[in-house]
Amino acid sequence: MEYFLEIFLGGLTRGSIYALIALGYTMVYGIIELINFAHGEIYMIGAFTGLIIASILTLVGLHPVAVLALASLAAVIYAAAYGFTIEKVAYKPLRHAQRLSPLISAIGMSIFLQNYVLLAQTSDFLPFPNLIPEFEFMDPYAHIIGSAEIVIILTTAVVMVLLTILIKFTKIGKAMRATAQDRNMAMLVGVNVNQVISVTFIIGSATAAIGGVLIASHVGMINFYIGFIAGIKAFTAAVLGGIGSIPGAVLGSFVLGWTESFATGYVSSDYEDVFAFALLVLILIFRPEGILGRSTAQKV
To answer: What are the pLDDT digits (tens) for 83-107?
Structure first.
């Protein structure tokens, strides 16, 4: 039973990280129906920013918790600035172009950011300091779940609650829902659609950066390629749950995390990706809109 619980909580931790990244995919798609394939690289840039700031603050002698908080804040600000800039440079000029054009632009931006970080940093894996302290009250349960996993799960839960409050009860949240439902009608009633789209990219980039810093601190290393792998997995999770649905992105992330964790625990770590993408194929065959997605009629 303890082994099952360990695998379950490990899958919950994976799903939490996937959820922080998948939110950016599903929010952008819900607003402008664009798959932002550069989103994984935003996650990666957030992790590298956290590493740089954490390295500087550690030399100063700050407490690891303060280092983690300040490194996460810097990563959020820097990644949000990147998300805002990418939308203005790569997507806004193509907003009324054929659907294939912004998709190609997104892939090009992803490749550009990968190579930019590769040239600016290194192709090798870099060590990331462990900034998450071990809690004494967790010692009796350390063989099942560690303090880092608890912090990741709780952080994701807090982000989900804050995002829900933002979308349901704030003015910008109502504008985001209106834009997602009908962009042209939202413009007619005075919603600043350009501002809404920019805010969506900023929020999605910020949540991805938080995930980048947390998982890098937990794993202990990063390189320029981590954004591609994490981005593909998070995109898979968003599609599983129903692309465009925020609860669907979270549910899909947890389902994907548990699938990988149980495949690793009971079969082999070599097959975790096989089971994950086999699940995606089954969902696309039997429920193309995803677990919580809605089927929409296409006008011709």
So the answer is: 999 999 999 998 888 878 888 999 9
Dihedral sign for Cα atoms in the order 233, 238, 239, 244: negative
Tokens of 155: 């952080």
Domains of the chain: 2-286 (1.10.3470)
pLDDT tens-place string over residues 247-298: 889 999 999 999 989 888 888 877 777 888 888 888 888 888 888 876 554 4
Contact (CB, 8 A) for 149 and 10: yes
Alpha-carbon torsion 137, 142, 148, 153, what sign? Answer: negative
- Locate 104 and state its tokens: 């190609």
Tokens of 62: 């700050």
Distance, in Å, from the CA atom of 105 to the CA atom of 180, rounded to the nearest integer, reads 22
Q: How far is 50 from 78, CA to CA, in rounded Å?
A: 10
Burial grade of 288 (CB within 10 A; 0-12, 13-18, 19 or more) = exposed
DSSP state of 87: I
Return the exposure string of 100-120: e unless at least 16 CB atoms fall within 10 Å of the residue's CB, then b.
Answer: eebeebbeebbeebbeebeee
